């Protein structure tokens, strides 16, 4: 108990990094997902192939490799610095999960029944109006639970940024462990609990969204 | 491209390939462990004791929603410090336990969705025919529950393969570990890390295509898309 009280405040120092990385990664991840998902359905073949290429590359290799590649290789390759390791982490996580989530965006849009877009066409809506007022509102409902699941995955993925030297929860946990070896079980258990507490709201939100998404989608 | 060097590429390539055996071996062992350990969760959950079921559900949720990297560190660094235990696990075993337990919670969900996908009428029919418990499972339930789970289990093999480089952080000398130490020695991360990325792409992309094919075939054969309802958080 004494140990927990000593360790706890040290771990909270990493909280801001973990949370900001999560928020940044989630924001850009959703953004990439929508851009890539819509591009994959475009009528422009070049755009379609290019985004397909992006999706397969980022789904085919693992996140940790991408993270290291972005952090170590990109500055060497093009001589650009990504600014900070915060950006390297956020961009790696969001590109990776954006690729996965773009498939959800695409799948959900395709899952909106054909009658819906036909009805919209019958009402003389333009392509844009059809998407904006008929398809997307239904598709987004279907995406929500999966987006929730991926947000939990992204939270777990933020622990990787400690490997590129960012001072997140895990990083502080490692520091405490290395100064006091015998406390390793307590330290890592506390780190796990930290992540779980951060995940709890996401878990509940995902459950809410599951029931929400079942309503208001035309089926059949 | 101002820094790319084919000489470095040619130099690093054979060295990194050396680690491929360990990466692949670790993938297979972790995956086998997760497959077996998945049953463990399933069995506990089937015990008709509500508090126990609730407890296990929360433990699984806990394991599922915390980072596998931390779990790896937990097992690798904490195990020797637990008072009663007092012996260390080597890197490979820690990786198998850490990743295997993490993924077994997902695998258990796959099993569950497979069993729940078997229609209620099938259970009732088994009862009506007065089948013994064993016959019910081997002749009716499992033959219908297993095929739809195969593509999902296949997906997890690929996911596992992509998570295995995490083990390089606790010193398992797989391809990522070799690439990183090569980078640190020679001050060039670009080529070795690119080689690792290419290896992952070359190995995982074709398998993903094969699994997609199998999935399509299964869907056609059983025409049971609803069985493949997305298992919770089937991603990684």
From TrEMBL, chain B:
Pfam families: BPD_transp_1 (PF00528)
Keyword Repeat: no
Protein location: Cell membrane
PROSITE patterns: ABC_TM1
Recorded topology in the membrane: Multi-pass membrane protein
Membrane-spanning segments: 20-44, 166-183, 189-211
Tagged with keyword Transport: yes
Annotated protein name in UniProt: Amino acid ABC transporter permease
Organism this protein belongs to: Virgibacillus pantothenticus
Lineage: Bacteria, Bacillati, Bacillota, Bacilli, Bacillales
């Amino acid at each position: 108990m004494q140990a927990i009280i000593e360790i706890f405040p040290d771990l909270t120092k990493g909280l801001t990094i973990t949370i900001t990385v999560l928020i940044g990664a989630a924001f850009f991840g959703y953004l990439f997902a929508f851009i890539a998902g819509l591009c994959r359905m475009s009528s422009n073949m070049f755009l379609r192939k290019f985004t397909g290429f992006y999706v397969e590359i980022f789904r085919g290799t693992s996140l940790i490799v991408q993270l290291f590649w972005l952090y170590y290789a990109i500055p060497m390759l093009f001589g650009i610095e990504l600014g900070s390791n915060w950006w390297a982490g956020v961009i790696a996580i969001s590109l990776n999960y954006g690729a996965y989530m773009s498939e959800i965006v695409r799948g959900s849009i395709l899952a909106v029944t054909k009658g819906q877009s036909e009805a919209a066409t019958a009402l003389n809506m333009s392509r844009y109006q059809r998407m904006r007022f008929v398809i997307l509102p239904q598709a987004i409902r279907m995406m929500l639970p999966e987006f929730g699941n991926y947000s939990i995955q992204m939270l777990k993925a933020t622990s990787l940024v400690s490997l590129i030297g960012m001072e997140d929860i895990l990083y502080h946990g490692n520091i405490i462990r290395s100064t006091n070896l015998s406390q390793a079980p307590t330290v890592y258990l506390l780190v796990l609990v930290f992540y779980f507490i951060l995940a709890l709201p996401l878990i509940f939100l995902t459950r809410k969204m599951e029931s929400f998404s079942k309503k208001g989608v035309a089926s059949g | 491209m101002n820094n790319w060097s084919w000489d470095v590429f040619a130099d690093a390539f054979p060295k990194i390939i050396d680690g491929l055996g360990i990466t692949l071996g670790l993938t297979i062992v972790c995956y086998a462990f997760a497959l077996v350990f998945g049953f463990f969760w399933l069995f506990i959950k089937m015990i008709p004791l509500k508090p126990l079921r609730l407890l296990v559900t929360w433990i699984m949720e806990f394991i599922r929603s915390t980072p596998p990297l931390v779990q790896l560190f937990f097992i690798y660094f904490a195990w020797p410090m637990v008072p009663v235990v007092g012996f260390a696990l080597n890197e490979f075993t820690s990786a198998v336990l850490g990743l295997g337990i993490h993924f077994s919670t997902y695998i258990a969900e796959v099993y569950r969705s497979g069993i729940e996908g078997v229609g209620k009428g099938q259970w009732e029919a088994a009862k009506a025919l007065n089948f013994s418990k064993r016959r019910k499972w081997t002749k009716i339930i499992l033959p219908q529950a297993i095929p739809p789970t195969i593509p999902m289990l296949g997906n997890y093999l690929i996911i596992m393969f992509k998570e295995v480089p995490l083990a390089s952080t606790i010193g398992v000398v797989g391809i990522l570990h070799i690439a990183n130490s090569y980078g640190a020695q020679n001050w060039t991360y670009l080529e070795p890390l690119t080689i690792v990325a290419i290896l992952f792409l070359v190995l995982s992309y074709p398998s993903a295509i094969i699994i997609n094919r199998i999935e399509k075939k299964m869907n056609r054969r059983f025409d049971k898309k609803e069985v493949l309802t997305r298992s919770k958080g089937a991603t990684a």
